Amino acid sequence: MDKIAINTAKLIEFIDITSKIEKIVRDSKIKNGICVIFCPHTTAAITINENADPSVQKDIIKHLDELVPADKNYLHSEGNSDAHIKSSLLGCSLNVIIEDSTLALGTWQGIYFCEFDGPRERQVWVKII
Ligand code: ZN
User: Fold this and answer.
1) In sequence order, what are the residues at sequence separation of 6 or more whose Cβ sits closer than 8 angstroms to the Cβ of residue 47?
2) Number of domains in the chain
3) This model's pTM is above 0.70
């Protein structure tokens, strides 16, 4: 398993990690298979979305904030329930097909680490099968 270290800088942000995952795939020398990308955190997530227009990520963050407000009568005493809920909504793992030693992503797709309770030191775990 490979581990990618990510230091997030903001409370909420999306970080494009596509090139880091592609490097792990290249270095593995595996031509065809599955790349499992896993986020081992309960207040962060992993998602695939558009990497051409940065407004898309801003819109996703804005609408998640509207859907899951930071201040509500949550029971969790740590004060970051909104981050936990957003983490579960987006999910903690992805499978991407590896074809001819590259990630089989759509033209406009990028892989994003999604921070919802930063800034923190984070990791993404990657396993190629
Ligand atoms: Zn918490």
Assistant:
1) 14, 90, 91, 94, 111, 112, 114
2) 1
3) yes
